[in-house]
Write a structure and sequence with these properties.
alpha/beta; 7-stranded mixed β-sheet; flat; 6-stranded antiparallel β-sheet; 709 residues; homodimer
């Protein structure tokens, strides 16, 4: 299922058939043929319809069986009930790729027919796109095999969209914004070809400079993560994912039938992959348009040039929000801008040319910034004034944008004013000059450029697998499975911890009072005692836990109390004994967990003590496998991270041991898929160099048999 | 200084003089006269310039002294060095209001001259606007006394801006967006007239439906809070405040010379006042335009109507973000939309008309929503399709917007598509139809409408002052002051707590070992002991604290150790004794504080235990005075609030006692301005009904003398 796809002929077909071609102009089958013909496709086109005839100057074939030529791609636009037969026709003919426009399958609850079609296609080595899509556009082949609008502008942005309606509207929007496309593909129900397949092609496609994806739900997330990681260091990848909110997730599920999964996990994993997630389509389009054309800055020193102090302050706020670093060497700023700034202005960043500035002052200041080896990018702001006539605005912006492009330095403009200023924005945006009517949008684009640069600089494809004893892991799993359980008993969890090398407090299981006392004396006071019973999972609720037992007498009392309580709580519970363990000083408590995420497969999570995770939702996620560096970033990401560094005179905690533990769990859930959920809670973290200890371990197993890969 | 201003003639002057009127078209003094004349001002205009002559058909007077008529407003546009004399001229003539356009005063470090001018004006009963402003526009008088663009569109939005350059650009932007203005005023250096004065006028002005303010720094914040509270229940108040970020705050300070203050405090207090803060100017403009025209919804049941599932999901996400409640009675939705939705669509909210929908389907669905008594507002989405030709889009939107306006129900539209769709947005926005090109913007406007509605419904002007013994408070303050201290010793803080009725642990100060033992026995073990010395503030650092002393022997040891440590730490410290106090069970710890904020005066803060405030920044602020309800909302606002409700089987904490304590501190810092800063840290909160106890109290006093109001 997960083999790398060769879907080249989806974008570069030498011949295309349209099954369901129609002379009825209101039909999709007409629109498709029309778009292909008018779009200037240079390969061979075979419209197919049992009625035969002619359509837009093309012969209509009664069946694919009549066609002698090899067919790379057959677009299917017949009704749902005829789709299987159409695919059979393609199979007979040896077609390579089958985009199925037709809807009425899994998105309507009819998953069985969809599976049947995909099975058939695969048996004949065909790849299916869709069903339930608007088609494919590829600039490379001048192929508009969609029923969307004609005249798609060619360019360097590739769009992959799960929603067809949104995709068609996006084609229109990109035309308005003068965003040229290298490709646009709708994936629909993703019965076969998915985002990963398309990304694999697009990241190698030299015409595509940036990829924009609209996602509603993730399937085969593990492969998606691996592909995104590879893609995002080759070219910027921007994602808009709907279903952020709980209600939105439900709406998305009912829309495409795919599970949205947890938005926090999605968000974290996109960051891990270096993928930029836009909140709105507008933000994503802005980024794409800017990133497709902007030169890569050498560094991050940014300077703001403005004719208004107020707008300069707003831009400064926006710079902090979007991680844009403002250059602040006062001496060098003065040196660079002193001669081009009036005395009552400011050479501090924002450089304030004041309301007296005209085009000449802007030209001089922007040229100075361009020439400076200390400045890597410029943000130019303009507030409409009587001094600087907006009629001269477009010229000033155009010439400076041009100079920066030639000089290989990024620049963005943001202007505020009346009709003239607005129409200047409109004209320049059509020319793909990066001009915005809102400071936050301008700075957001610059921020995206820096993020992309930073990601590439920091990226490493290292994977730090931990050294775990997989044999011992499987033994522990087998023990639980043999007893028909989907959870582990304490001794099995303990064995699992031994297998992956995570320390736990010393302990022993006592089967009578004597053994309990002996165990306590061996371990050393104080000790903790807990009931051991496969039927009692919530031990505290059952009165089955006693803490801080300081001597023999307390152990005796507690042993009896625990047994009585447990029996009262669940009279028929099998009681296997009482666990006696070392009572630890509980200093800094963390939670480290791992699970088989429904969308992304093996994932890890980390957070501080119970309250921080439960109440403050202060938790970080990553997809496995991950590198040590990624695990370190994950630990640093939580808001409560300063507690691990030591606050109020406390020592730094053993952060490296936490990172080790994360890597161990990541390796565990990667290599042993039977472990569906594991949580060390709490994982007590000692001072730097002193390690960590898991006080409690909860392990859940998948109900199916172990399927180690 | 804080008397309510009568600034009516700033907006409704019967006569206006312009000092510094000029025939030189490049001068502000020309532009001002031109704007007043061309703007159609109906009152009397007196251009003044020592050269005399004629200007734009108006006689130019050599001096105000020549004018016999009464002058309500004199706009000053002479150079900085001539400004004082110009104001003298106004004073002689009995002018009422003096907007000073001229810059070069406190914003350039020349505060002395500015003070001198304001003093002079006040001595003659004149109010000053500015200096350093672009002027005043008032629709009521058709008076454009600004040097901004001509032809300002009349309407119902009033703008108050601290930045002149931004203000001028905003005039242009409002014209583009077809936002009509009732007034626009630049406040500049706010040497006299400030936002509160203007708000007081604007909230009573029947032409103004909404107020938009751009603020960089707050002065006289206490009065501003009181005024904003009054204003925001009369009409929506929208604020954009720059200087959110640290760097932005510095930039703002250097721009207008005003202190930005803490952005968190500003943000919290705006929410308290019911003021809506826009992040960007675009957001603020969108809200203003929408709120100025939208009918007030009766309830909050919102329905989304769409022709695309994807865009519907995005709108659902946005609804959660902006607090828009989606109606979800499936039965009623089906009843309402069943007949107008195709079978393969959805009557769930979002109501999906599918890509097959044309204008008729929209008309039917929007009419059904308008007619339904269960639906209070509609969000209509459109993705460009081949079925629904964008040429018919404007007509559909216009007629439905009209029907909703007549029906008194709010509706917003969001569309996505190509050139035709975009130009439709442009045309309709000019007609002030609420159409957006981005779903998040559309939903944000609806969210703002609901927030305003909710604020008015929940508002109460109640102020819950606590019953505190102000005599005892002043005694404690006097005691510290008499010793020349700006902080309180433990016994003074304890007295203060008694005065306001906040419980502390039992305690006594022992002057020798015998007394210490006796105190411990009286209080009951365990006890805590702390050194008492005016020279030792950080007692723990000095080894001057011993916790959990369980018997006489431990008290004896600790007494000696504490004294030795303290003497070693600071050999010349006066040691007044050792405080012995009850050792409390420290369960849930909170921090309650109050201070004289530089911008807003008396304010209170609340958060959970040290780490939550220090590391997690989980803290709430409010301006005093406040009502019990406001204090309750403040407590509920923190992320860690669930801890007070009791997690993991714990009991609910005594939240009411926390609220009481907040009100007590609010009253204290309001009534005793000498207390500049007070913090109860920790304030231990017991189970519901068990009260609170302050374990430690830190009190700082202002260095000036007590100035109770």
């Amino acid at each position: 299922m997960n083999r790398p796809a060769d879907i080249r002929y989806l974008f570069e077909p030498r011949s295309v058939a349209v099954l369901g071609a129609s002379a009825d102009r209101s039909k999709i089958g007409y629109r498709l043929v029309e778009n292909i013909v008018r779009g200037g496709y240079a390969g061979k086109l075979y419209p197919v319809n049992p009625k035969g005839g002619e359509l837009l100057g093309q012969k209509v074939w009664r069946s694919l069986d009549e066609v002698a030529d090899e067919i790379d791609m057959a677009v299917i636009a017949v009704p749902a009930k005829g789709t299987y037969q159409a695919v059979e026709q393609c199979a007979r003919h040896g077609v390579k790729h089958v985009p199925i426009i037709t809807s009425g399958f899994s998105e309507m609850g009819n998953a069985e027919e969809e599976h049947r079609i995909v099975r058939l296609a695969r048996e004949h080595g065909m790849r299916v796109l869709g069903p339930n899509i608007f088609g494919v556009f590829s600039a490379k082949s001048s192929l508009n095999a969609t029923f969307g609008p004609p005249g798609i502008q060619h360019g360097s942005v590739a769009i992959v969209t799960q929603s067809g309606a949104l995709g068609i509207a996006m084609i229109g929007k990109t035309a308005v914004e003068n965003i040229g496309l290298s490709a646009i593909v709708s994936v629909g129900n993703k019965a076969d070809i998915d985002e990963s397949d398309l990304l694999t092609y697009l990241m190698a496609d030299e015409q595509t400079r940036i990829v924009l994806m609209y996602i509603e739900g993730v399937q085969h997330g593990e492969r998606l993560v691996a592909t995104l990681k590879q893609a995002a260091i080759k070219k910027p990848v921007v994602v808009v994912k709907s279903g952020r909110s709980k209600r939105g997730a439900i709406a998305a599920a009912s829309h495409t039938g795919s599970l949205a999964g947890s938005d926090e996990v999605f968000d974290a994993i996109m960051r891990q992959c270096g993928v930029m997630r836009g909140e709105s389509l507008e933000e994503a389009f802005n980024w794409c348009k800017f990133l497709a054309a902007a030169p890569t800055p050498r560094g991050e020193n940014t300077v703001i040039v403005t004719n208004g102090g107020g707008i300069g302050v707003l831009a400064t706020d926006a710079s902090e929000k979007y991680g844009v670093k403002l250059y602040d060497d006062a001496r060098l700023l003065k040196e660079t801008f002193g001669s081009v700034t009036p005395d009552f202005g400011s050479t501090k960043n924002p450089v304030d040319l004041t309301g007296q500035a005209g085009p000449q002052q802007y030209d001089a200041a922007l040229a100075a910034a361009l020439a400076s080896e200390h400045i890597d990018a410029t943000l130019a702001l303009y507030c409409e004034t009587a001094i600087f006539d907006a009629q001269n605005l477009a010229g000033m912006i155009r010439s400076n944008a041009d100079a920066y492009r030639k000089g290989g330095k990024p620049i963005v403009f943001s202007t505020l004013g009346g009709e003239m200023t607005e129409s200047c924005i409109g004209v320049l945006r059509k020319e793909s000059v990066p001009v915005f009517g809102e400071v936050y949008q301008a700075v957001s684009c610059l921020g995206a450029l820096y993020r992309q640069r930073r990601h590439i600089a920091e990226y490493s494809d290292a994977v730090d697998e931990a050294d775990i004893d997989i044999g011992l892991v499987e033994k522990a799993v087998a023990s639980a499975r043999a007893a028909g359980r989907t959870f582990m008993l304490p001794r099995e969890s303990r064995e699992l911890m031994r297998a992956i090398g995570v320390a736990m407090p010393q302990n022993a299981v006592a089967h009578n009072l004597d053994e309990a006392v002996k165990a306590a004396e061996t371990i050393g006071y104080p000790v903790v005692m807990k009931i051991v019973s496969p039927e009692i999972i919530h031990k505290s609720d059952a009165g089955g836990v006693a803490l801080d037992l300081e001597n023999k007498e307390e152990v005796i009392d507690a042993y009896q109390a625990i047994n009585v309580n447990a029996r009262r709580y669940k009279p028929d519970a099998r009681i296997e004994g009482v666990e006696v363990s070392q009572m630890l000083v509980r200093t800094t408590e963390t939670i480290v967990g791992a699970r088989q995420d429904k969308a992304f497969g093996p994932t890890v999570m980390f957070g501080l003590g119970g309250i921080y995770v439960e109440v403050m939702k202060d938790v970080a996620f990553r997809a496995a496998p991950l590198s040590r560096k990624e695990a370190q970033l994950m630990v640093k990401e939580i808001r409560s991270y300063p507690l691990l560094l030591g606050v109020r005179g406390e020592k730094r905690k053993d952060i490296e041991a936490v990172v080790d533990t994360i890597l161990k769990l990541a390796t565990l859930v990667r290599r042993c898929r039977a472990v569906s959920d594991i949580e060390l809670n709490p994982l007590v973290v000692y001072d730097h160099g002193q390690g960590v200890k898991a006080l409690d371990v909860r392990v859940l197993l998948s109900s199916s048999l172990s399927s180690n890969d």
